[in-house]
Structure formats: structure tokens, C-alpha cells
Amino acid sequence: MLRPCFRCFLFRHRLYQLREDMDIKPETFASLLFFMRKCLKFSFLEQFDNEPVIAGLGDEDKPFFCTMDSTGAKEPAKDFVVAGTASESLMVLVRQCSSLRWEPEELFEIVSQALLSSVDRDCLSGWGGHVYVVTPTEVKKGILKGRMD
């Protein structure tokens, strides 16, 4: 079921590139995803009770963060977004750390520890997570493995 969804997004992205002659911005992709979720509500996208997270750098390297709930409502944010079954416990930990300014390496470690500690408190969260730290020069990606009991 994921492959037709990916192909549909890829088709829309390429169509946008051909029409506008530029790459798609994160804000535009969030609007496209919102539109597609509403239009295809009763087709293959309905079967996914997912909460997509859209993050990227827009104009002048300004960060953009947005998530959608399972009904498709957009929830833009200024500095961070969380999604999933452990989002409430993760929100508390990340909100305390977001007021300070960290270097990318320190931020990666703090977010990783916050993610693992919130996942340990929720039996539905799975066995780890993905952490992305986006800077104007690079994207640092980490795959975390948690407890498997």
C-alpha cells in the first residue's frame, strides 16, 4: 500500500517541477499533502492512520516544520514537531530543551536521549526512532534502536 502512495507523491512533485521550473518548497509540499489526503480520503490513503511530518528549509534557509494528525488537519510549528504514540511524553521533554540554543551535535544527542526515554514509557512506540537535525549546510540523520522487550 505504501508504494502507490509514494508514486502518487512522486508524480505530483515531478509535475510541480515541470510546471513551475523549480524545486518544491516545504510549505507547498505540506499544502499538496493536505490536498491529497482530503481528495483521496476514501481510497488507499484512508487505510493509513498516520501522522506525517514535513520538515525542510524554505526561503533564505528559514526552517519549516509541520505535522498532520490522523484526520489530515495541518499543525504548523515554529521550532519542532513530534508525532506518534509517544508524542505527549516526547513533547514535554523536547519543549524544555527547545528554549536553549544548541550546536547540531549537542542537539542531536539531546533529542536522541529524549526520544529513547519517551519511547521506553510507551508500549506502542516500537523499537526506536529516526532523528533528523537539519542545518543550512547539512542534514544529520540517525536511526536509534531502543529496547526490544
TrEMBL record:
Native organism: Prunus yedoensis var. nudiflora
Example of a GO cellular component annotation carried by this entry: cytoplasm
PANTHER family, per database record: METALLOPROTEASE TLDD (PTHR32194), PROTEASOME SUBUNIT BETA TYPE-3 (PTHR32194:SF10)
Gene3D superfamilies referenced in this protein's UniProt entry, alphabetically: Glutamine Phosphoribosylpyrophosphate, subunit 1, domain 1
GO BP annotations listed: proteolysis involved in protein catabolic process
Keyword tags: Proteasome
Pfam families, per the entry: Proteasome
Name of the protein in question: Proteasome subunit beta type-3-A
Top-rank taxon: Eukaryota
